[in-house]
Design a protein that fits this description.
The chain is an alpha/beta fold and about 400 residues long. It has 13 helices and 14 strands.
């Protein structure tokens, strides 16, 4: 059977392969400490679940507009205006089956084959996969590490800019690093976008999961609202990962084209789930505050447990629910050079399952430091402490 050549360019989320390895290890009777997937083991708020049941009983089970039901689009615009200081209307909103579809639809809308797209590396791997799939040219920008944590390497970022650069994917409150742009960094990025006439995808999946201060979106800066598409997802803020509900918010002329893709793709996002989404947006904000408190407690236990572990460097993330840990020295001491060998070795010896830098875009030429990612969104405090203590004590045997 012959397949289209473009399929060879389509990547995946290899974190699911890590989950399969962890499951196989558990099936042998071993205990697994699951730090690999960014799922949330906190239930969806009961008012949202009740709303879903109510609208199912009311028969909200048929087709609906490809762009989404108007009441949800209105509620979504109102929410973004409240948090971002914008003035969107319902016509600036396209409802999606989760946040992920927005990446591909954005690129289909704004990028021609051969155009260059700036995206973060390490970063969410679907950026790279979709740029490749639609025939774009990869322009991964990098981060640098110092004693204070991670920040964008602005010199490297600027070196990537060319007349063929058309789009910039920006994931502030970033997966896998948990890094936040400073106001100065965000301002500089916005000025570059305006100067070079880029259209921007602002991936705000973790916008509400910030531990210090108030979150800021690049869309709020001068000249950015008319060139930015916001990727919004209900997955994180409302613990609705499996519900598959999200939204693209941006200039009407872009949103209209995304809506046209909706018509050709999924027809519409599940009807009754959209009505439940209205309940989420209009519900009690205390739930989100409690979620952040829970995640912060888990973060702090992770840091407390790992801070004196030899051979690693760990920074306190200001957002998301990930630790991006430098394990360069530990791997050298263990005589391990390959990420997969280290990952599988630590699973076998400690039961701790995690992703590595290789799961977040292709490793770039010149990278020498080694990193792994711990997701603490789906694991309770006692298991965090127990698993990371085993991880630390095993590494100590090499020092």
């Amino acid at each position: 059977m012959k397949f289209a050549k473009r399929m060879s360019r389509l990547g995946t989320e290899t974190a699911y392969a890590v989950a399969a390895d962890a499951a196989a290890y558990a099936e042998k009777g071993n205990k697994v400490y699951a730090f690999h997937l960014g799922d949330i083991n906190i239930s969806t708020p009961p008012n949202i679940v009740a709303a879903c049941k109510k609208y199912l009983d009311e028969g909200k089970t048929g087709y609906c507009p490809a762009a989404g039901i108007k009441p949800l689009r209105e509620a979504m615009a109102a929410e973004i205006n409240r948090t971002h200081g914008t003035d969107y209307t319902w016509e600036n909103v396209s409802i999606q089956s989760g946040g992920k579809p927005i990446i591909g639809k954005f690129l289909m809308t704004v990028m021609e084959e051969g155009d260059e797209v700036l995206y973060p590396s390490p970063g969410y791997p679907i950026y790279e996969s979709q740029v490749d799939f639609f025939g774009g040219v990869r322009k991964p920008y990098i981060y640098k590490e110092d004693d204070k944590g991670f920040s964008m390497d602005m010199d490297h970022f600027k070196s990537l800019i060319s007349p063929r650069t058309v789009a910039f994917v920006y994931n502030n409150y970033q997966n896998p690093m948990g890094v936040c742009s400073s106001p100065e960094e965000m301002k500089e990025l916005a000025e570059l976008a305006v100067k070079n006439d880029w259209i921007v995808l602002s991936d705000e999946a973790y916008f509400d999961l910030v531990y210090e201060g108030q979150p800021q979106s690049i869309v709020s800066l001068p000249g950015m609202k008319e060139r930015t598409v916001i990727l919004y997802t209900f997955s994180k803020k409302y613990s609705m990962t499996g519900w598959r509900l999200g939204a693209a918010i941006g200039p009407k002329e872009v949103i209209d084209k995304i809506n046209k893709i909706n018509t050709n793709d999924e027809a519409c996002t599940t009807h009754f789930i959209q009505w439940a989404g209205i309940e989420a947006l209009k519900g009690d904000l205390a739930y989100c505050d409690k979620l952040v408190e829970t995640l912060k407690e888990r973060r702090d236990v992770c840091i407390e447990t790992l801070v004196d572990c030899p051979g690693i460097r760990v920074h306190v993330p200001k957002a998301t629910f990930y630790l991006f840990v430098n394990v360069t020295e530990a791997m050298v001491k263990m005589g391990i050079t390959k990420y997969e060998e280290f990952r599988l070795h630590m699973l076998e010896k400690t039961g701790v399952s995690f992703c590595t830098r290789e799961h977040f875009g292709a490793v770039l030429p010149g990278e020498t430091d080694k990193y792994i990612r711990f997701a603490y969104s789906g694991i309770e405090v006692p298991q965090i402490r127990e698993g990371l203590t085993k991880f630390k004590e095993y590494i100590k045997t090499y020092f």
